[in-house]
Amino acid sequence: MDRDYRIGLNESIFRDVNEQLEELADQFRPSDGELDLICECGNTDCEQRITVRRSDYERIRSDSRQFIVVPGHETEDIEDVIEQTSGYDVVRKRAGAAAQAAEENDLRAD
Ligand SMILES: [Zn+2]
After folding, report:
1. How far apart are CA 94 and CA 103, in angstroms?
2. For residues 41 and 73, is the Cβ–Cβ distance under 8 A?
């Protein structure tokens, strides 16, 4: 499998986990609060947590190519940092295999 595609696929898997964490949070705290998510970087050994406001998470998730990572966890040759906060960075895949993987494996996309 192409390396870039694999990274995109790994990130998509973490994104799916975060989707489930959000769903769980919905059941216990239905209001707009903070979500305790995992870093969506391409490193499968990364287990760092990120706190994101639900409204920010929804905005970021509305684009299949965007992911939330711990600052510094971006993969520079396949994605750009488009937003920086104190707790996390938002990255967006450039066109290519990783972007393709991110879009093909987005559970929210039709
Ligand atoms: Zn990470």
Report:
1. 12
2. yes
From first to last of its 110 residues, what are the pLDDT tens digits of the chain? 899 999 999 999 999 999 999 988 877 776 778 899 999 998 989 999 999 999 999 999 999 999 999 999 999 999 999 999 999 999 999 999 999 999 999 988 76
For residue 44, the CA-to-ligand 1 centroid distance in Å is: 8
90 CA to centre of ligand 1 in angstroms: 12
- The pTM (predicted TM-score) of the whole model is 0.87
Instruction: Read off the DSSP letter of residue 42.
Output: S
In this structure, what DSSP letter does residue 94 have?
A: P
Q: How far is the CA of 52 from the centre of ligand 1 (A)?
A: 15
Query: Distance, CA 18 to ligand 1 centroid (Å)?
Result: 13
Cα 73 to ligand 1 centroid, rounded to whole Å: 5
